[in-house]
Amino acid sequence: MPAIVRFAFVLAFGALTGGCFQPLYGNQTVGSEDTVRDKFSSIDIPEIKAGNGTPDARIAVAIRNAVLYDFNGGQTPTSPAYRLVISFGAGRTTVITDVASGRPDAQLEIINATLTLTEIATQKVVLQTSTFARASFDIPGTAQRFAQQRAARNAEDRAVDVLAENIRNRLASYFVAGT
Q: What is the pTM of this model?
């Protein structure tokens, strides 16, 4: 009998708290507040500054496209309420070196980004923060230099995806908790 009472208590408690659950990226509102998805769709992201024709220019475009896609499927907002300015620095460092030959065996793609979220109506900076992404890749050997270039490009792409996800999560945290 005590097991049935405990089970009924757990079931009743679950039913009461289950109605309070709302997914972070859901599109249903509670009251008159906008959802996180609505907030994301009201963010304008200007072009990220990088030198023309440089490897950073490709990364800048990839970051902006990935963040736009994460926010609202790649569409630019029609009436933005916020502006997100992203600046970044990218680089590569050797993490493992072959002791016998002195050649690198693995490298790390590094992207550090600084974010500034500004409310357009008041021109007030509401959030200024930074985030980063890292992605490693193996160097296949000296005879396969094109494979090495493709591995480096693949690592850049993975780092961009991680960075876009970090940006999305950081802004979702701000819109939900205000911090």
A: 0.79
